[in-house]
Write a structure and sequence with these properties.
single chain; ABC transporter permease; cell membrane; ABC transporter involved in vitamin B12 uptake, BtuC; about 75% helix; about 0% strand
Length: about 350
C-alpha cells in the first residue's frame, strides 16, 4: 500500500472515531448534516467569490479613475512592486500549510521580514566589496537558508512556540543587518541587477517573472506531487498523518527552510528593485502576513494556498499602486491590510468553530 493510500485510510479512520483534527474535536456526521444555515463548503465558496469580486472591483475602480492604470507599463510596475511581497508571502504560506491553523502553536514565521533585510544587506555589502554576482547570490541564498534552518531547529528540536521562536530570529536578523549596513543605505550595481530590471516576455519585468516562476514551481509541487499531499496532511490532519508514517517534524522543518530560501530570493529582488539595500525591512511584516492570510479567501476551502497568495500579493500591489496614482497617502494601505487580516482571521476562526460545534 502506498503512503498516500495509507494516509487516506488513516484519515478516514480518524474521522470515524472522531479523533482530534488540527487540535479540536471533529463533529459527528449527523451533527454536521443538521447544522443550520449554509454548509462550510458553501460559505467557503461564497467568500472566495467575494474575494475575487473585491479584486475585480478594485481594478475597475482604479481603471475608471486613472486611465493609465491598466496600461502595460503600469501592469508591469504593479508586478514588480508585488514581487518582493509575493515571494515572502509564498514562504509564509508554506509554513502555514505545514503548521496548521493555530497561529500560536502552529505555523507562523515572523522572521521573513528580517530575513529580507539581512539578505539584502549581505548582497549589497558583498557587491560594494567587489565580489561578483555569483558570490553575492550564493552568500545571500545561504543567508536565507541559515535563517530558515535556525527557525526549523528552534521549532522542531527546541520545541519553542513558532510565534516566539521566529520573533526572536527576526530580532537576530535585524541586529545583523544593522551591523552590516550601520543603519545606512548601501547602494549596489551589478549586471544581475540590470538584468532583473529588464523587460522579459510580454514586456513584463524580469523581477515580476521571478515571482511567477516561484509560484509555478510551488503550485506544481503542492498540487501534483506526494510532497504537497503530505504537507497539507501534516498541517490539517496531523494525527492521521502520523498514523500513516509521515515524519511531521521533517515537513515542518522543511517549510521553514524553504521559506528562508525564499527570503533570500526576496532580498536579491529588493536590491534589484531599489538598486540598494535600505533599512526598514521590518515594515514588511504586516504586508507579508496580510498577503498569506488574505490568500485564504481565494482558495476553495479557505486554506492557505500559493495561488491565493499570488492573487493577494497582486491585489495589495494594485491597491498601493492605485493610491499612488490618485495621490492618496500610502499609510491608508497599512490600515487596510490590518483590517483585512482581522476580517480573514475572524471569518476562518468562525467557520472553524462552526465546524467543531456539536
Amino acid at each position: 500500500m502506498s503512503l498516500e493510500s495509507s494516509f487516506e485510510s488513516s484519515l478516514a479512520a480518524s474521522q470515524a472515531l472522531h479523533l482530534p483534527r488540527a487540535g479540536r474535536q471533529a463533529p459527528p456526521p449527523e451533527a454536521a448534516a443538521s447544522a443550520p444555515g449554509l454548509s462550510r463548503g458553501a460559505l467557503a465558496g461564497l467568500l472566495r467569490f467575494a474575494g475575487l469580486l473585491a479584486l475585480l472591483a478594485v481594478v475597475a475602480f482604479f481603471a475608471v479613475r486613472v486611465p493609465s492604470f491598466l496600461t502595460p507599463g503600469n501592469i508591469g510596475l504593479i508586478l514588480s512592486q508585488s514581487a518582493v511581497l509575493g515571494i515572502l508571502g509564498l514562504g509564509l504560506t508554506l509554513v502555514l500549510i505545514t503548521g496548521g491553523s493555530d497561529v500560536i502553536r502552529g505555523g507562523i514565521d515572523l522572521s521573513l521580514a528580517g530575513t529580507l533585510g539581512l539578505a539584502a544587506a549581505v548582497f549589497a555589502t558583498l557587491n560594494q566589496a567587489g565580489y561578483g554576482d555569483a558570490a553575492c547570490v550564493a552568500a545571500t541564498l545561504a543567508t536565507g537558508l541559515a535563517v530558515g534552518a535556525l527557525n526549523a531547529l528552534s521549532v522542531t528540536w527546541l520545541r519553542i512556540l513558532p510565534l516566539l521562536a521566529t520573533l526572536a530570529v527576526m530580532n537576530i536578523c535585524a541586529g545583523l543587518e544593522l551591523v552590516l549596513t550601520e543603519n545606512t543605505t548601501v547602494p549596489a550595481a551589478a549586471p544581475l541587477i540590470d538584468a532583473l530590471n529588464l523587460a522579459g516576455p510580454f514586456d513584463l519585468p524580469v523581477i515580476g517573472l521571478v515571482l511567477v516562476a516561484a509560484w509555478l514551481v510551488l503550485a506544481v509541487t503542492l498540487r501534483f506531487t506526494p510532497v504537497g499531499l503530505r504537507a497539507y496532511a501534516v498541517g490539517g490532519h496531523p494525527e492521521a498523518a502520523r498514523a500513516a508514517g509521515i515524519a511531521l517534524n521533517r515537513y515542518v522543518a522543511g517549510s521553514y527552510i524553504v521559506a528562508g530560501l525564499l527570503g533570500g530570493v526576496a532580498g536579491i529582488l529588493s536590491v534589484a528593485f531599489l538598486n540598494a539595500a535600505t533599512s526598514g525591512s521590518a515594515d514588511m511584516l504586516l504586508p507579508v502576513i496580510a498577503t498569506a492570510f488574505l490568500g485564504r479567501m481565494f482558495s476553495r476551502r479557505l486554506v492557505p494556498s500559493v495561488t491565493g497568495t499570488l492573487l493577494a500579493a497582486v491585489f495589495l500591489g494594485a491597491l498601493a499602486n492605485g493610491f499612488q496614482l490618485l495621490h492618496v497617502s500610502s499609510y491608508w494601505v497599512n490600515g487596510i491590510e490590518g483590517a483585512l487580516i482581522l476580517a480573514v482571521v475572524g471569518v476562518t476562526s468562525g467557520l472553524a468553530q462552526r465546524g467543531a460545534r456539536p
